[in-house]
Structures are given as C-alpha cells and as structure tokens.
Design brief:
mainly alpha, Rhomboid-like fold, two-stranded antiparallel ribbon, 14 helices, globular, TMEM115/Pdh1/Rbl19, Peptidase S54 rhomboid domain-containing protein
Length: 325
C-alpha cells in the first residue's frame, strides 16, 4: 500500500476508535484536516450561495420561485429544496459563507464529502418541510394569511446544524478566551437568536429556520447518520442526548419529555439498531459497552496526539484529508 494511503487509513482508524468521537482540541483538528485552505466542496457551495443571492438581487421576482412561500409551495414544491440555499440579505450571505467555509473545513474531512453533502441536503429539506407545516398550522389556528405569504429562505439552519456537528465531535474542548465548552455552542447561538428576535423583525424571520435546523441536524446525527466503521446508525451516547442542550438543573424535567418523543418517533430505529449490532440476544456487543468505549476513546486520544506530534507538513495533511472518501 502506498505511504500516503496508509497514513490516511491510520488517521481514519484513530478518529473512528471513539464512540462518541474524540474530544481533541480544535487547533489539533484544524491542523489535521488542512488549516491552510478550504475544501473544494465548501468553496463550491459558497459560490452557489453567492450566485443565488446575486440572482435574487438582479431579479427580485425570482424569490417567488426560489424561496419557501407556503401558499405557493403547491405546485412549486421545489422551493422546499431551493429555499435553503437562497439568502435574501447581504448579512445573511456573508455569515453563511464564512460559516460554511470555516466550519465545513473541520467537519467535511471527518464525515467525508458525500456524507457532508448529504447532511446539508437532508437538514435543509427537513427544515423547509417543518416550516411549511408550521405555517399551514398557524394559518389554520389564527386565520392570518401573513403566515402563508411570508418568504422563508436561508442557509443559516445548516450553519446551526454544523454547530451541532461540532458539539458531537469535540464536546469538551474549551473555546479560547471565552472559557466555554464547544458543546454549548448550539444552545448559546440559539438562545442569542431567540433574544435578538424580540428587538429585530428581520431576526425574527430567521428564527424558524435556526430552530428547525438545529433540531433536524440533531435528529439526523442522533438516529440516522450511518457510521462507516460500524455500519450502525446514529450516536446513542448519553453525551449527545437531547437534554445535553440544556443546563444541568433542567435535565430531570427534559429527559422524561424527550423519552416520550423518542419512543414515539424512534422506537423502530432502536429495534433496527439492536438487530444490526448494538445488542445481541440482550447482551451488548464488544465495543458498545460504556466502559470499553471509554477505554477506546482514551487509547484513541493518546494515539492521535502522538500522531499529531509527529505529523508531516500541513500541505501534505491537507492533500491527504481532501482525498479521503
């Protein structure tokens, strides 16, 4: 096997040793996954966001076809897909582009380009679908037609979803200067968005997208994302439970409520995962035991730190990471 391929496989093995993923530093992850440049996929998606914003600026009437307007979603059903990539303001396209480039540079090498693109598509589509259903429900309850004709669009739902992905990968890493653990980023960002919506009408229009984007991304990562190294779906760890988005004192209240929705929506998924390999005849398989998983995380973390200490140049690592499929 070629040396570069061998090194890539070793890096993937080290990352896949943990369940949940390794809690290494953000600086180490950035070094490992190409700190000197953005990925091609992220740059391509950024070009799409900028191009659609320019198109909307030149032809304002295009918003009726591209943005999600609940009253016109039928027959224009494609806006459930296109709405997630259309930014209506310069501020929105700047924030979304920067977030996509910098956060995507960390997440894409971990997930792989195909899974990264799949995550974006699914989260955008489900976010638009939830907004459509909510708008129809609010119209039926209140009778106000404004809910049907308000244009919803933007990539910010996926950006908030990326924060959930970072929470999953490096939950216990502290941000420099702020002394805040990464696992609180989605909660803090969502709380700030809700607070800002009370003073700004424009911020209020973003609120449904960021709320559903955060929740749908957690649903996908928690229950649906398939792990290539195990062929299982989701992340069943307690560190990624829904209650971890809330302060410690609220968890005794959140957990019972979340468990009800978990059984209602994901009971079959649990049975499927058990049948595939989380358990066998009621006994956990090797690697699924919490104590064993903790040991594997520690071994993987030590091995990854040793690898980073003797890592080759940043240019070689960037080339290696971008070639991983």
């Amino acid at each position: 096997m070629e040396p570069t391929k061998s090194r890539r496989l070793q890096i993937l093995d080290l990352v896949s040793m943990s369940t949940p993923p390794l809690s290494v530093s953000l600086s180490q992850c950035t070094r490992l996954f190409g700190a000197s440049g953005f990925t091609r996929l992220c740059k391509g998606l950024s070009l799409v966001l900028i191009s659609l914003h320019i198109l909307l600026h030149l032809f304002p009437s295009a918003i009726t076809c591209l943005a999600l307007i609940p009253a016109r979603t039928i027959p224009f059903a494609w806006n459930l897909i296109t709405a997630g990539y259309v930014e209506q303001s310069v501020y929105g396209v700047v924030v979304s582009t920067i977030g996509l480039l910098f956060i995507g540079k960390l997440l894409e090498p971990v997930w792989g380009p195909r899974e990264f693109l799949k995550f974006i598509f699914i989260v955008n589509f489900l976010t638009s679908l939830c907004i459509f259903i909510t708008a129809i429900a609010l119209y039926c309850i209140t009778g106000q037609e404004s809910y049907l004709y308000m244009p919803f669009s933007g990539f910010h739902g996926v950006i908030f979803g990326f924060l959930v992905g970072i929470k999953q990968i490096v939950p216990d890493q502290e941000l420099p200067f702020l002394k805040i653990k990464v696992k609180w980023l989605p909660s803090i960002a969502l709380l700030c968005s809700i607070a800002t919506s009370f003073w700004s009408l424009e911020a209020a229009s973003y609120l449904p997208t960021v709320i559903y984007g955060t929740y749908m991304s957690w649903i996908y990562l928690r229950y649906w994302q398939r792990k290539p190294e195990t062929k299982l779906k989701g992340d069943p760890s307690e560190d990624f439970a829904f209650s971890t988005f809330f302060p410690e004192f609220l968890r005794p209240v959140i957990d019972p409520i979340a468990s009800i929705f978990h059984r209602m929506l994901c009971g079959r998924l649990d049975a499927s995962n058990d049948a595939q390999g989380y358990t066998l005849r009621g006994e956990p398989l090797p690697g699924s035991d919490p104590i064993e998983a903790s040991r594997r995380r520690e071994r993987g973390a030590r091995a990854l730190e040793e690898r980073l200490a003797t890592a080759p140049s940043a240019g070689e690592l960037e080339t290696d990471a971008t070639e991983i499929v």
